[in-house]
């Protein structure tokens, strides 16, 4: 069924944040294979360019775009550039899944603020700019993984849930996906890619304000080599 649905992404331009790492890289490739023109947004120009070249080699369409989406002016500039190139931006997949490197009891104020800025503040900023300039553009959020414990994780998931559920009041279509673990490579991240592709379908445009837990298969003990490590 997903193979048939994926054909409907041919006319869509979709931006993926943090496309140079983790789930961002996996989702960018999956969306491109489904026919979307993908805008790879991130901070590492070299890695973004490598991914764009890989997608183009496979027959897809992708452009790298350096931007810090946590900075509103950067996100505004990125949107303007996308509109100049493609004339439209149909959807945004935002990775709001930065995880802590410390246990809750050792979490410093600086690390907590970094988590909040990367996962929550950036999401609010993206939604605000979309509301001002492109209110018909859908937004799918990839929230903090469900396997991350500690009291710092639930408030972040709760903030994303609240934003998605209330976004209809601003005429925005926002949904949240919560994978059960961190990314472990494209082959093992397919359930999340399939969920993102499904939500991108025009036939499901009525779905908004949903928060979906995405069970993922167990991660392999050893991560396979990918084209970045060759």
Describe this structure in a few short sentences:
The chain has 230 residues and is an alpha/beta fold. Helix content is 41%, strand content 16%.
For the sheet with most strands, the description reads: 7 strands, parallel
Report strand %.
15-25%
Shape: globular
**Secondary structure tally, helices:** 7
First-residue to last-residue Cα separation: 34 Å
Strand order, sheet with most strands:
3-2-1-4-5-6-7
Structural class, by secondary structure, is alpha/beta
Strand tally is: 7
Low-confidence stretches: 1-6
**Cα gyration radius (Å):** 17 Å
- What value does the average pLDDT take? 89
Write the H/E string, N to C.
HEHEHEHEHEHEHE
Question: Considering DSSP H and I runs of 4 or more, what fraction of the residues is helical?
Answer: 40-55%
Tell me about this structure:
The protein is globular and about 45 Å long. Helix 6 links the parallel strand 5 (138-142) and strand 6. The chain contains seven helices and seven strands, in the order H-E-H-E-H-E-H-E-H-E-H-E-H-E. Helix 2 crosses helix 7 (190-199) and helix 5 packs parallel to helix 6. With 230 residues, the protein is of the alpha/beta class. The relative contact order is 0.15. The chain has a seven-stranded parallel sheet with strand order 3-2-1-4-5-6-7, sandwiched between helices.
What order do the helices and strands come in, and which of them pair?
Elements: H1 2-6, E1 13-16, H2 22-33, E2 37-42, H3 45-57, E3 61-66, H4 72-86, E4 91-95, H5 109-133, E5 138-142, H6 153-166, E6 174-179, H7 190-199, E7 211-214
Parallel strand pairs: 1-2, 1-4, 2-3, 4-5, 5-6, 6-7
